[in-house]
């Protein structure tokens, strides 16, 4: 932190500090009512078509070569209860997007993300997270809200943070965490952690891409693997919203029960 007297600071210094404060607020862990609420966000992968890259690299063919398409999704292990007793009133429920490979629906993506996260945890000797339908409903509502009101943050335009959104629905989590990510389905994007191109056309591929985003970012990986000051999570819920234009918003929330 710059502790020089204000009189010694130039306009440029103040501007730089404002940017730094904004970035720190974006990644900082939030303590709410004595409960730990973690928040980290992954910026959306760049859509390669928007970079001015030679159009011939990504030209849409006149007809579909089915032999070149990736395989459709396998059957995901069901994450858990889809109709809990308590849900977020703003939960949009299922959203879908049609690709040349399959009908990508948000519920299937959520199942795959939950299973993939537990696989990554198992690789590090951690117990699987129990699926929580209420936490997932709150997560899904936040994903939809980000798409609907065109923002990308843990704090919504009303000033509500992750714990605020959960306690407005239920109150059994004493610790609460949130990872968010944004990407696209059926559009070429930068692959997470690589220089390769990703083109998610199935629910399974999209889910893997979302988890790869989080695992390739230190604070998100720490939230998943309970590293540093992150608590030992009891349960979690995934909420995915797929917009009409193929934009995908994902929230993965974690909970420690009282």
Automatic annotation (TrEMBL):
- Pfam families according to UniProt: CAP
Compositionally biased spans, kind Pro residues: 69-79
Which keywords does this chain's UniProt record carry? Membrane, Transmembrane, Transmembrane helix
List the residue ranges of the region (Disordered): 59-95
Which SUPFAM superfamilies does the entry link to? PR-1-like (SSF55797)
Q: Which superkingdom? A: Archaea
Regions that span the bilayer: 23-44
Cite the SCP domain residue spans from the record. Answer: 116-247
| Name listed for the protein in its UniProt record | SCP domain-containing protein
């Amino acid at each position: 932190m710059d502790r020089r007297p204000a009189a010694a600071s130039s306009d440029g210094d103040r501007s730089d500090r404002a940017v730094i404060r904004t970035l720190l607020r974006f990644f900082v862990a939030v303590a709410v009512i004595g409960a730990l609420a973690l928040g980290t966000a992954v910026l959306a992968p760049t859509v390669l078509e928007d970079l001015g890259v030679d159009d011939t690299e990504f030209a849409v063919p006149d007809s579909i070569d089915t032999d070149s398409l990736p395989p459709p999704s396998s059957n995901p292990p069901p994450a858990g209860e889809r109709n809990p007793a308590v849900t977020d009133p703003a939960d949009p429920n299922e959203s879908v997007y049609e690709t040349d490979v399959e009908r990508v629906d948000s519920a299937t993506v959520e199942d795959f993300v939950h299973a993939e996260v537990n696989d990554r945890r198992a690789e590090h000797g951690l117990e699987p997270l129990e699926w929580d339908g209420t936490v997932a409903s709150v997560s899904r509502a936040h994903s939809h809200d980000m798409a609907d009101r065109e923002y990308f943050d843990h704090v919504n335009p009303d000033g509500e943070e992750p714990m605020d959104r959960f306690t407005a629905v239920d109150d059994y989590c004493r610790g609460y965490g949130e990872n968010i990510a944004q990407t696209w389905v059926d559009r070429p994007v930068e692959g997470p952690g690589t220089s390769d191109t990703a083109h998610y056309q199935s629910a399974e591929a999209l889910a893997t891409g979302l988890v790869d985003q989080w695992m390739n970012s230190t604070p998100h990986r720490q939230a998943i693997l309970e590293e540093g000051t992150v608590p030992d999570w009891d349960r979690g819920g995934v909420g995915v919203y797929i917009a009409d234009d193929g934009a995908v918003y994902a929230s993965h929330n974690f909970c420690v029960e009282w």
